[in-house]
Amino acid sequence: MQCPKPSISTALIIGGGIFGVSTAAQLTRMGVQVTLINDGPLGNGASGRSLAWLNTARRRSLPYHRLRQAGIERYRVLADRNPGVSWLSFAGGLTWDAEDNSNEIVDVHRYERELGYLSELLSGEEVSARIEGVDGSQVTSAGAIFNGNEGWVDLPSLIAQLASEITASGGTIITDAGTAKLTVEDGRCTGAVCANGRSFHADRVLVATGPAVPAMLAGQGITIGDDTPVALLVETHPVAHPLQAVLNTPRVAIRPTPDGAFFLDSGWSEEEVVVHEDGSYQALDSTVSELVDEARKVLSGAPELKVKAVHLGPKPIPGGGEPVFGELEKLPGCFVAFSHSGATLGLLAGELLAEEMALELRHPLLDPFRPERFAN
Predict the structure, then answer these.
(1) Which residue in 162, 201, 166, 198 sits closest to 179, CA to CA?
(2) pTM
(3) Which of 50, 345, 351, 365 has the smallest CB count inside 10 Å?
(4) 254 has which bridge partners?
């Protein structure tokens, strides 16, 4: 059977994060002539400061769980095709809750098992024996959940690989293009114009500008719910340590990096970010120090961690928390990708959006996440 032929010849992708680059790569594979524009370097937004934990852990709606599960499977295929790469790991994810009345780890474990999600409930002693690099004495009395199917990806590395594929296939990538504004003719999106006056025309347009999506579409009279906070991600210098799994603990989340460093974040530390009147962000030294201290507590051997960089910026979260994917009913020809789970959904979203854009399909997996839900 022959693959369906695209019904379009050109596509414009606005945004150089994982959603934009992934969709562009899929479109080039289908024979569509793609132009991708970004306001700065590729991966300069949320994709460049993401914990990038590949998971569908804990509780969420069943359609969202299914979407994320399919997203993880795409990374399994990618890992099989790229054996031994340092930027993709499936060493699992480990999580535990605080020692108080908010602890729901046992109920979450049961819920995950009922969904068929790989989930083991481990004591602190079992964590020390099985999960290399973790101090099991820090696990609270209810235990910890180990999800052995989870992993992490270094998004800048993946974006670079996909970008090379795009250009090798004849696609065009334009970085440092400045802010883009959609162009509309007879009620249909036909392209975009950048701040420097350069314009682009295409049969289909994807808006994948991370936290800038709601404001960009508001200019067209389209509402997208927005719960975007300011994210804080601390990057350490490389350190000799055996941790390979992703940790999600009450006071710190930790993810290894390809060069042996760690990325650290948490909910409480984000709340301490200072937002100045001019819109700039500041992380307090006390916040960064405490986050590092919390990491040292849960890592075996309490390694000395030195801060290499502090990454600050908006973390895209749509209103209600669930993603937004698909064509805009009020603006035909314009598609949108806006989600908190950019890493987990990155490959899958690019695949499904490319099919919708080029083949005029409407994928049922995306139906619960259409942008029109905010119009109601």
Answers:
(1) 198
(2) 0.96
(3) 365
(4) 247, 264
Indicate the helix (H) or strand (E) that contains 298: helix 285-298
The fraction of the chain above a pLDDT of 70, given in percent, is: 99
**Looking at the domain that runs over 10-48+155-224+320-375, which CATH code has it been given?**
3.50.50.60
Q: Which of 69, 50, 48, 59 is nearest to 95 (CA)?
A: 59
Angle at 358 between CA 353 and CA 361, to 5 degrees: 65
Q: Pull the structure tokens for residue 97.
A: 């809750």
Mean pLDDT, the chain, integer: 96
> What residue type is 56 in one-letter code?
T
Does the pLDDT of residue 196 top 90, yes or no? no
Report phi then psi at 250, rounded to 5. -55, -30
Query: CATH for 89-151+227-314, among 3.40.50.300, 3.40.50.170, 3.30.9.10, 3.30.2310.20?
Result: 3.30.9.10
In angstroms, the Cα distances linking 308 to 238, 280, 315 are 9, 20, 21
| DSSP label of 22 | H
Percent over 90 (pLDDT), the chain? 96
In this predicted structure, the answer to whether residue 2 has a pLDDT above a threshold of 60 is no
Helix, strand, coil abundance in the chain, percent, nearest 5: 35, 25, 40
Q: How many CB atoms lie within 10 A of CB 160?
A: 15
